[in-house]
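Lab notebook, design round three. We kept the backbone fixed and only want residue identities now. Task for the bench partner: fill in a sequence for the structure below.
Input C-alpha cells:
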C-alpha cells in the first residue's frame, strides 16, 4: 500500500466531490451548494464504505464537510470556464497520485462506477434538461470513466468506446 502524504490523501478522498461538482458546474446555477445534497442521496457511497472496510481512501472520502475540495477555493473564482478548468486540473492531479496497488484499484473501480451513476442521473435530467449541457456532461463523464477504468479504453464493454453511451 503506497503511503500518501496527508495532503495527497485529502485530495484523493475529495475526488468524488470534485467529479460531481465538475458535472454540476456545467449546468447548475450554484453547483457547490447542491453537491452535498446530491452526495447525501447517493446510497452508493454508504454501500462502498461497507463493502471495503479496510480501504482507507474509500473510508475517508466525504469526511471533511468543512473543506470538501482541499487546496481548491471555488468561491474565489467567478467565471464558469475557470471553475471547470480548475476542477479538471484538480481531478487530473489527484487521479495521477493513484498507484497500482489493491487500495488504488478498488478506489479507481469505485470512481468509474460513480461516473456511471452520475451519467444515469444526467440522462434522467436530474442535472438539467438542456441538450447541449447534457452532451457536454456526458462527454466529460466518458473522459472520467476512461481515466479511472482499470481496462484500456478499447477493451471496455468489449468494444471501442463510443459517444453514444458511457
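Proposed sequence:
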Amino acid at each position: 500500500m503506497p503511503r500518501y502524504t496527508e495532503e495527497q490523501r485529502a485530495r484523493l478522498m475529495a475526488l468524488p466531490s470534485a467529479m460531481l461538482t465538475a458535472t454540476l458546474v456545467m449546468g447548475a446555477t450554484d453547483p457547490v451548494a447542491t453537491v452535498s445534497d446530491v452526495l447525501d442521496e447517493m446510497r452508493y457511497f454508504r454501500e462502498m464504505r461497507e463493502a471495503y472496510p479496510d480501504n482507507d481512501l474509500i473510508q475517508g472520502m466525504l469526511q471533511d464537510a468543512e473543506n470538501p475540495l482541499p487546496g481548491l477555493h471555488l468561491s474565489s473564482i467567478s467565471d464558469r470556464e475557470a471553475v471547470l478548468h480548475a476542477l479538471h486540473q484538480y481531478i487530473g492531479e489527484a487521479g495521477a497520485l493513484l498507484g497500482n496497488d489493491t487500495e488504488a484499484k478498488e478506489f479507481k473501480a469505485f470512481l468509474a462506477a460513480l461516473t456511471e451513476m452520475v451519467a444515469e442521473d444526467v440522462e434522467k435530467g436530474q442535472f438539467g434538461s438542456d441538450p447541449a449541457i447534457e452532451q457536454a456532461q456526458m462527454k466529460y463523464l466518458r473522459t472520467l470513466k476512461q481515466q479511472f477504468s482499470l481496462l484500456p479504453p478499447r477493451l471496455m464493454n468489449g468494444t471501442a468506446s463510443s459517444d453514444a453511451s458511457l
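Keep this in mind before ordering anything: Residues 153-164 have pLDDT under 50 and may be disordered.
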